[in-house]
Amino acid sequence: MNTNGQSDHVEGNFQTLKDHIAKLSNNQNNILTKFEVLNQNMEELRSIVSQFSEKISSLEEKSTDKRNIKSDVCVLKKRIDELYAIVKEGKEDISCPSDDVQDVESCHSEVSSSSKVAMTTGLDRDTIRAAYEDVRSDGTPTEWAVFKFEGSRIVCSARGSDFTEFRKQFADDERAFGYLRLQMGDEMSKRRKFMFVAWVGPNVSVINRAKMSTDKAIVKDIISVSTLHIAVHLSTYTLMPGLDYSSPANGINA
């Protein structure tokens, strides 16, 4: 009887142990299931955070673009106001018909209110600088270079050594800039001079005439060395090969 009782007791303990093992196994399975769910949630959370980060980056870019646009608009409005003042107050000494002035005032009013018209002048710095150095160099035959507008950009349109060809570069409906090397003085004292020419033809519009002063400043950022400076407006001045360029009576600023 004692043997049977001990056997029953062992079997009971063994059954209890099996039940505990089964519960532990079940709990382990539950933990693994919950871990898989947690892992899926983490992946979803990571995806959401990534999307949120992309949206923040997009908002930052838009904010930067907005600030840049606002800055460009301020610069544009300031430049338009300057151009308008030049035309209205006659700073370029241009006699404008009343219809042209009304057109300029209308253009100024519309652009100032909408700030949608781009008037920025570009510059082909590499070709202009190369032409400038070419004219100044004693090692090349180049005596002159001409810079004209291609759309909203100023480029080097021609260069050469014949003054007659230089004179042919300036048309009535164009704005242009020229850079010319001159030999000054007499046989006893020869001096090399450089002349900068700003040309405005008679058929150029009022708006483009008014822009000439600011566009000239852009070009002279590269054409920094010039002994003589000629501002040629309309057809009141003709470039002549025999002219004494150093004489103040000819309207030249030395």
UniProtKB/TrEMBL annotation:
The keyword Zinc does not apply. Residues 120-250 form the ADF-H domain. It comes from the Eukaryota. Residues 35-62 form a coiled coil. Keywords: Actin-binding, Coiled coil, Cytoplasm, Cytoskeleton. It is found in: Cytoplasm, Cytoskeleton. Its main location: cytoplasm. CDD domains: ADF_coactosin_like. Gene3D superfamilies: Severin. GO terms for cellular component: actin filament; cortical actin cytoskeleton; site of polarized growth. InterPro entries: ADF-H (IPR002108), ADF-H/Gelsolin-like_dom_sf (IPR029006). SUPFAM superfamilies: Actin depolymerizing proteins. The keyword Coiled coil applies. SMART domains: ADF. One of its GO terms (molecular function) is actin filament binding. One of its GO terms (biological process) is regulation of actin filament polymerization. Binds to F-actin in a calcium-independent manner. Has no direct effect on actin depolymerization. Acts as a chaperone for ALOX5 (5LO), influencing both its stability and activity in leukotrienes synthesis. Interacts with 5-lipoxygenase (ALOX5/5LO) in a calcium-independent manner. Binds to F-actin with a stoichiometry of 1:2. Belongs to the actin-binding proteins ADF family. Coactosin subfamily. This is Coactosin-like protein. It comes from Papilio machaon.
